[in-house]
Each structure stands twice: as C-alpha cells, then as structure tokens.
Amino acid sequence: PLSMTETYGTDAVRFTLAAYAAQGRDIKFSGKRVEGYRHFINKIWNASRFIFMNIREGEKIVPLLETKTLSLADRWILSRLSSVAVEVNALLEEYRFNDAAGVLYQFVWHEFCDWYLEMVKPVLYGDDEGARTSSISTLVHVLETALSLLHPFMPFITEEIWQQIPVNKEVDSICISRYPVAGDGIEDEESEINMGVIMDAVLGIRTIRGELNISPSIEIKVLIKTQNGAEDILKKNLLYINKLARVGEIEIGNNIELPKNSATSIKPLMEICVPLKGLINVELEIDRLNREVKKHKEELSFISKKLSNKGFINKAPKAVIEENKSKYSEIKEKIDTITASIDKLMKIQEEDTEV
Q1: What pTM did the predictor assign?
Q2: FRET pair for 351, CA 20 to 30 Å: which of 6, 93, 112, 201?
C-alpha cells in the first residue's frame, strides 16, 4: 500500500479498493486499475478549477432553495444529484461499497463533467446574467454535494477542494458535514426524460462523426425525423445540440424527408441523418477504413496464434493470458464496428451512383 500510494496517491488507492471490493469476490489488483482512478481524481480537480475560474470576484452564489430560474440542464443535473444521493445512501447501508463507488464515478465523470459542464459553458460566457447566476450557483452546489458524497472514498482531495468553495459553510471540515440526502437536489422526472431525448440526439450525431472520421472542427448539417413529442423538446433546446455536437444547420420535424446520400443513426424517438454530399470523399474514406481493418486483422492473427499455442498457455502468467484474451475481444469489436461503417458507406456509394 505504501508503494502504491507513493506512486498514485492515497485517494486513488482507496477508491480503487472500494470500487473493486464486491462482496464474496477476490480483487485482481493492479497498478493500471489505480492509474485509471487517478485520472478520475484529475478530472475532479480540473472540473473544480474550471468552476472556480468562472466565478467572478464578488459574485453571489445563490443557495439552491433561493434560485429563481433554472434551465433544463440545471434541473436535470439537480434531479440526477437527488437520485444519486438516495442510491448511494442505500448502497452504503447495505455495505455495497463497490456499487456506491460505481454510481458516484458515473455521475461525477460522465453526467456532471462530460455533459453538464459542457452544457453550461454558453451560459457562463453569454450575456444573460439571470441564467448565469442560476447556472454558476447550480455548479457550485452540485460540486459541493458531490464532494461530500465522495468524501468517504477519497478524503484528501475532497477536503482540499471543499475548503476552496466560496460559500458560507456551517462546519469547518467536510468530514464533519452532514452526508447528502435526496433533499440536496430536486425531484424532476420530466427534466430527466427531456434531457434523455437531447442526449440521444447528440450521441447519434457524434456516432456518425466518429464512424466517418468527420473532424470535430467541421460544423455539419443535420436532419432529425422525430416522433412522440421529441420535436418540441429538441427545438426548445437547440443550444445544447449545436454546442455539444458541432452542428451548423439543423432541421427537425415529424415529416422530414431524409436524403439518400447520407449517414444515419436510429434512436428511440428519432432518426438522425447527416447529408454527406460535399462533406467527405466516400471512396477515400472506404479505402482508409479498409486499411484500418487490414491492420487490425494482422494484430488479431498474431494474438490468436499466441492463444492457440499450448506452450504460451502453459508457461505465461494467468494475468498475461487474460490480458491477451481481453485485447483479442477489443480488436475484434473494433473490426466489427469499422466493417459496419464500410457497409454503410458502400450503400451510400451505390445510392449516389444510381442517382
């Protein structure tokens, strides 16, 4: 433990042990696991720095109950905070520390840092002072509450950041503060449903970008054919879609006709379409992806030969064998994903030729 904490820090080691301490299971401990959670701690530190940098000198942080106007993103993250507090408390009561750590990791890294922080940036840099006050107050409140939820798992960084939060505190240390409960957020099921629709749209557009290697700097045209009320939700929240998916022009509606020469992504309440004319060279992209598949197949063949070699299986440490099996599955999954992208592009090429 002393060696590991010297290398990765005490908080990373503690969180790793908690995250993998499932009841009735032996832990396969390794430095890579601890390093992964050190990245999580860095994420928390960087998110906190971003929030503190955006608090203006003398700016008032409004308590949650006094906040007058909340955006959809504000209500969504506060609703998720409430749900997470309930879930974590229940899991800790049942001694399911690994599940509690997993819930907090998902909430802090993905929902708070990856989604909410990106959603509020246009508000923080915009001219609407009322919206800014609500969002900066929500940011500080969620950060403070999330740190309290995380404190038993990683006491040092949470105390360090908590001491820097510019709000009046009832106690002198996070370790003697009240542990968060449902009332530290808000219950707003509608905001979670609506945000789920927006996130589906953003993820669908990002998937198309990733599959076709479209540069993040390029603003693309998007058409979204909707159903069951999704149109109103998306149109009211175009700011989030434009910001998070780098969209230039967007059309949304129930009766939109989707062009043939396009890439599509299907989500529960929508069909997302990106016209490819003038956006990418389909033939060159197919060639690039075929070269990528060839490279991955060579790697796969090399690992397959190792795993079918009885000498390797008998002599290699179990951890090395497991690592090779894991890598084999990972490469195979990559090949399947790239092959699916090639198939899509070839269909688009055929349709373009027919036109």
Answers
A1: 0.83
A2: 201
